[in-house]
Amino acid sequence: MSSSSKKRKRSSHEKISPEEVAKKVKDIAKTIRETSSAARDTVKTIHESGAITELAEAVQEAAVATRDTAKEISDTTKEIRDSHIAANTASAFEETAEAAGETVRTAEETAKQVSLAAPKTTKAVRKGASKTSKAAKAASRKLKNKFKQGAAKPKIEAKKIRMKAKTKLD
Description:
With about 170 residues, the chain is mostly helical. The chain has helices at about 5-15, 20-50, 50-85, 85-170. The chain contains four helices and no strands.
């Protein structure tokens, strides 16, 4: 049962005597004295330990550090503003974008020119490649024949020398 339901039960069934009320008031006063004494002792202990002073100093240091950091950030942003770094960076991005756009347009125009000239160029390249291929094959054949002829003579000479050497030995 909760305390509120107990109170309701008492008030409806039995009455509290004035002596009981006085006793309860005294108990409450005693509890208040004990609690305040314990609180006083706790505060005294905390104060004597230096914890409150340490806490206050730590809060002060944090406040000073925060102030200094905010000031540095403010100074840095002013420097950036005054040096026009942001404006120059934005300008460089803009110029880069324009140059890139111009490059794309030039590449598109070049591609159109190449596609218009491609049929003529392709035909000329094919003819040149065909002539070059034929000339290379002919030169290769001639070179092979000359090499064979040139290589054949030393072979024949070597055979003759071997035969002479054999006959002289016999």
